[in-house]
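fyi for ur records
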Amino acid sequence: MKKVGIVGLGDMGIGMAGNILKHGFVLTGYDLREERLQELIALGGKTVANCREVAENSDAVFIMVLNGQQVKEVVFGEAGLLAGLKPGATIVVTATIHPAEMKDLQGPTAEKGINLIDSPVSGGKSGADNGTLTLMTAGPKAVFEDTKTVLEAVGQNIYHVGEEIGIGQTIKAALQALIGASFTAIFESLVLGVKAGVKAEVLYEVFGASGVSSPLFKNTAKLIMERKFKGTGSHIGTMYKDLGISMNMAKENGVAMFTASAAYELFRAGMSLYPDEDNWSIVKLLEQIAGIEVRK
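which gave:
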């Protein structure tokens, strides 16, 4: 039975931790916040004082932190994973970071005989809580196959997208451009309909039965109508960061991103106005301009 570790017990990480434990793995975790460590203990996991101690107790370690700088600190820090992992162990980066930041991990981990898997996820907090995340996993096929049972503890749709480290993050950056543009289109269309005199519930029912219906639309519109803008597990800062990665990748590849760039600017405005709230809070900016609210 593999011993698993996880660094980062935020809204996503704690949900993943619960499912790893449900699948019978021994789990050791670390987070900077004491309350999150206590949550892991309540779930049946073990907590330690730093990333190195997670590594010393694990065959495979998930990293689920916010950004690339944090990933590097987790791996290369004085009490980081490389200080404690044994040769043959595996690091699974499920955080969303820039493809170049992912590639930077390759050389130093290989020198230590540590396997590396590039596996960002999609599905949000509900996917993490229910073990139904989509994983876009890149890395050597043999390492992927050896780690697959661990990946299956957190994900329902697991795609081996290639052997080249960075491909997983590349796909995630393209996906986030689509998701960001979808969010802003949802916000605008709901505000437009309500401003023109249609009840929000009617828009929800009709849009939800149309060709653009999706779990993304239904969840977003429902939360907006219920005026739930905080604590729903999709913090605006995370999406803003992800869209920044998408836009940087577009610049590096010479790709025009008209709708994604508009979404990025709208999320930038939302970050300024509602820094502690979730993605859906951006609709309030559009509502202010229109002079209405999208509510039941």
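The longest helix spans residues 167-195. thats all i got for now
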